[in-house]
Predict the 3D structure of the following.
Amino acid sequence: MARNKPALVSLGILVVVVIACFIVPFLPFVKDPAAINLANPAAAPSTQYWFGTDQLGRDLFARVLYGGQVSLLVGFVATGVAVLIGVVFGAISGYCGGKTDAVMMRFVDILFALPFLVLVILFALVVDDYASDFTTWVIETTGWQRGRVAPITTLIPLFIAIGAIGWLTIARIVRAQVMSVKNLDFVEAAISLGLSRFRILFRHILPNVIGPIIIYTTLAVPGIMLLESVLSFLGLGVKPPNSSWGILIKEGADRMEVTPYLLLFPSLFFATTLFALNFLGDGLRDALDPKSSKD
């Protein structure tokens, strides 16, 4: 990994982006991203507004940073949900084999045949009412203001929808890896010691297939972030007044001929993050899978 310069540079870029999105907004010089200033709409970048302002006079620099929080959270949390479901499902299917494997994989094939984007939209709409009830419950229980709670709880449908549908590929990957490992000598030794199937699978087999899981996870995050941006671009993702990079790109695209910087800055952050995640995934693949290494 240390010999892969693009991967190391990408890791450094990701660290900078995460710090910028999750730490810099709390510094005193960063303005409120929701503060409307109709006296200064669509202002060009300046020393007062580094990235300029949008059509409502809101500081674009603050909106890009806060939007990055949402996009990164959706990418990592939804990927975590998808990987958790896919690893468990694929591991059980590959280890049990036989009719159990056939039934479980036919279920995966059926879900693969359905339009992914439509399923995510329908699932998000179904879960949306429960998320609203959960938001109200958190506010009543903790006494926090809605502006502090809603930006996170309103993302729950998106987390669940993308994670619950996006596990199909990782399930197939894990199944294939488990099937190639379960007949090796160390598994036979564990069986001869009388260990339970649960312990053999999760204590002895899965740690030996962790490499492909890590590689897929780093490569899946950009795809899920891109999916969130598409949903937000269509008005089905993050709800206003919250923002994400997808929403900011949509707003910038609507006004790109008049105020191109509204599209430039969020697109630059988004594209840089996606490239960094992909290069990091390639570096991890080369480091963890010697057979695919270019060296």
